[in-house]
């Protein structure tokens, strides 16, 4: 009799992909403590008495800015998050600080809030109040999204 099993995986692409620790470089991405991080420093320790060289990674969480580090044998695989940057045109900002963004296919994306970064928040809200056409850059990784940049593309 065949065993039945229930899949816990979500449909669609995986949130991460494997990459050998020794192939991960500065400014690349890495999953540390289940958080998507940008690598700031990589150092490799010499082979120890147990035969593995170790890679020490110092990285910063791409969403909350926290510094994290990890030590992995250089021959082992690390999880690398799929990170994407997408530009959207800002349509409007709701009273509860959600933004409405225009996607490439003409639909709207209404599930993002204004960023926590005070400087970026101010640039977006003031530009919007002045009637500027704004393009916001959204960073996506591991099921999270956040506005990370804004640029003025001219007056309406």
UniProtKB/TrEMBL annotation:
GO molecular function, one term: RNA binding
Keyword tags: Hypusine, Initiation factor, Protein biosynthesis
Residues spanning the membrane: none
UniProt keyword Protein biosynthesis present: yes
SUPFAM superfamilies in the record: Nucleic acid-binding proteins (SSF50249), Translation proteins SH3-like domain (SSF50104)
Annotated Translation initiation factor 5A C-terminal domain residues: 82-151
Gene3D superfamilies for the chain: 2.30.30.30, Nucleic acid-binding proteins
Post-translational modification: eIF-5A seems to be the only eukaryotic protein to have a hypusine residue which is a post-translational modification of a lysine by the addition of a butylamino group.
Entries under PROSITE patterns matching the protein: IF5A_HYPUSINE (PS00302)
GO biological processes: positive regulation of translational elongation; positive regulation of translational termination
Family annotation (PANTHER family): TRANSLATION INITIATION FACTOR 5A FAMILY MEMBER (PTHR11673)
Similarity annotation: Belongs to the eIF-5A family.
Function summary: Translation factor that promotes translation elongation and termination, particularly upon ribosome stalling at specific amino acid sequence contexts. Binds between the exit (E) and peptidyl (P) site of the ribosome and promotes rescue of stalled ribosome: specifically required for efficient translation of polyproline-containing peptides as well as other motifs that stall the ribosome. Acts as a ribosome quality control (RQC) cofactor by joining the RQC complex to facilitate peptidyl transfer during CAT tailing step.
Stated name of the protein: Eukaryotic translation initiation factor 5A
Taxonomic lineage: Eukaryota, Viridiplantae, Streptophyta, Embryophyta, Tracheophyta
């Amino acid at each position: 009799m065949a065993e039945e099993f229930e899949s816990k995986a979500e449909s669609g692409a995986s949130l991460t992909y494997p990459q050998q620790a020794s192939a991960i470089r500065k400014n690349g991405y890495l999953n540390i403590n289940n958080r998507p991080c940008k690598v700031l420093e990589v150092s490799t320790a010499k082979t120890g008495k147990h035969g593995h060289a170790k890679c020490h990674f110092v990285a910063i969480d791409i969403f909350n800015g926290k510094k994290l580090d990890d030590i992995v044998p250089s021959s082992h695989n690390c999880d690398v998050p799929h990170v994407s940057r997408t530009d959207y045109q800002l349509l409007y900002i709701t009273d509860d600080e959600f933004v409405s963004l225009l996607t490439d296919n003409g639909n709207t994306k209404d599930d993002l809030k204004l960023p926590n970064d005070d400087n970026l928040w101010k640039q977006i809200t003031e530009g919007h109040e002045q009637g500027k056409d704004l393009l916001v850059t959204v960073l996506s990784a591991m099921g999270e999204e956040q506005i990370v940049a804004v640029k003025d593309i001219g007056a309406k």
